[in-house]
Amino acid sequence: MMKLTRSGLPLRVLVLTCLLTSSVQADIIPWLKGLGDQEGKSSSSAEQVQVPTLAPMLKKVLPAVVNIAASGKVVVQDNPLLNDPFFRYFFRGMPPVPRERRTQSVGSGVIVDSDNGHILTNHHVVKNAETIYVVLKDKRRLKAKLVGSDPATDIAVLKVEPDHLIELPMGDSDRLQVGDFVVAIGNPFGLGQTVTSGIVSALGRTGLGIEGYENFIQTDASINPGNSGGALIDLRGHLVGINTAIVAPTGGNVGIGFAIPVNMARGIMEQIVKHGSVKRGMLGVQVQDLTPELAKAMGLETTQGALIAGVTEGSAAAKAGIKAGDVIVGFDGKKVKNSAQLRNMVGLKRVGEKAKIELIREGKRLTVTATIGKAGPSGIVSGEIPLLEGASFSAIPPNHPLYGKIKGVMVAEIELGSPAWQAGLREGDIIVSVNRRPVESVEEFLKIASKSPNQLLLRIQRGNFSLFLVLEK
Questions:
Q1: What is the average pLDDT value for the chain, to the nearest integer?
Q2: How many domains, in total, are found in the chain?
Q3: 334: helix, coil or strand?
């Protein structure tokens, strides 16, 4: 049977060559040519021909990926009624009956700084951990210290004794494209170090409800429980993501896994190493995506950008001159594609840092500088009302589904893990009353709340549901 060839290469070899990136082709094409030259020779000679393999690259990077075992304890309540806000309000004098439960978790991590012994992993891998051990490729078992973690992005940084460690070089996740080949390395189901391969299936996945700040790389490289915190690398052996979650309706891998882009993880790690935690500032805007209809009505030629629906009075955005109706298209030199991406960019900034913002206003491009910080009196409440620390409040904006249908105050933004978040408040909630008194403005809400510093009873409208929340010290 006739074989289609070109330049001495079989057709199946040409197809494989086309699938590879140009930089990888430079290394693999000589192997493929050798394979083509051997066509038709004896099987004994063919066995000596080199074939494409990732083994040489993996040999260099595998020592930088570690297994993590964490153990700790959490306090749980024996009586589930104690979690009911109505029960807690009317029977608040009843003493709780706490008990402790031991927790254990296994996961993965990546050595990214061998000189200082820093390891990147997921927050949920080491959450509530009292003792953390990492196991290296050479079977060494090292005790690790938690430098700090950020629940909002699910990133944590560990530190071990920097003794003959091998680090994984960081790549640039902004350069990834759908279709790029990637490799996932981790410790699935506690089996030990495992390598799987696939491609980048999608970029910029948001709205999954997995983390507070989402910008996931989606991949079909097999990721399973235990891979959390492990490495997603490109074919050059560079770290491009930290594996963190999967879609698992059957409990196992179905080809949809998610990784935190390394550029986001790097920014969080730098803050944790420098400050011990991530202290986010807020811009103080309500944003929405641009639809084709909105873009046409506003005379825009693109749907990329974040449309400003509202600006909190006294906020960083207001001080920078940003107005409702502006479309933010650039943030610190990077293009803004949608509202979720803008939120992520702002979330990586600390209070007091400056950001150059490019926006379109009435068809004209403007550049303003905003100093990221806390909003004014009608925005974030921290020192004045500790129970509401971490939350920003505003009037119900016109784009909200309940606008004109209900009176109250909206939770505009909330910091994951803050006292307000732990109490149960969520972004988009409408606070209808506080301590059984109806509220119609932010000023009225704060005035009533400030008179009860130790306990607040809030009535919340969340979508189609109403509920009460008790905030107390």
A1: 80
A2: 4
A3: strand
